[in-house]
């Protein structure tokens, strides 16, 4: 029984890594002074720097707005609120300046996700798809974003800036080389211990699978009955990593260094790429070809509407093919760790979940400090990836047999 471990951003967040979209957006405002020298920042704004000190730093966009509105509240400065976002966005002018504009958003897609982040949690990939489908339908909801050429150009700027952020603030700042002792609360989740299933007919492990799969589970369990626990590959853990960081690679190294049968043999596919890697560039876009609007995108006959659809970016290397080949080889149980199972990865997740070799889906949910958790939300999200709902109910392991994902593992900072 192999394991397919689906890793999402929540896995990085569980390690205290600032990889959320909100952390990324806040980083831009904290480093607002880089708008004077960094081309990636200059793509975002129209700024007349003679009106700024040059060392501005804000914790977030709200703080930026409060400071700017206070600092430039008097004549000859004046604000014009956005026609699309009211007072949540604005352009700042100077009456006697030759350029007149002191500050405005140049990248209109960045302006949109910034305003959305103030209103609620933001998913950049989903917002891109909303704008994309709005454009192809010809409505005016996002008319301020121009045409498909402008949208793709501005989305590309955000992608480059995200890669820059993750490289500078994650990859260059942390040592991703923990020992087993530093990571055992998570590393031990991948072990398998002999259960004597042949004589224990009421073992709860049976309940993680369909009733007609008992014989296969007993046969698998018997592989662990023996004198030597070393140097025998009884199963594989394939980490399908949707993140862009080096976090998971640390666990692959830890597990394989154990050389103990109960840990199996681990490998990793960074299906959405890795930070600053030209051979495996980050795959940032949308991946729901099952959506009703996707056919409309195809029928335009214009490939620009498909430019950031994930399926086409999978062709940049052989990772997707390796994954498809792997799921064909043997039965597997899916572990969900930190992945929201949202619609932006629907096509791929449907392939993995509805495959006949997928025998079970086990959720490692996020248990919050107040005692609440996201198990129900995750199970609801998973259901959207199934065309056959009866199959979903058979495969998803119930909460009583699931576990929260530990939140206590940390990496040493490089002190950069």
Automatic annotation (TrEMBL):
Entry's InterPro entries? AbiH
Specify one Pfam family.
Answer: AbiH
Name of the protein = Bacteriophage abortive infection AbiH
In which organism is this protein found? Chryseobacterium shigense
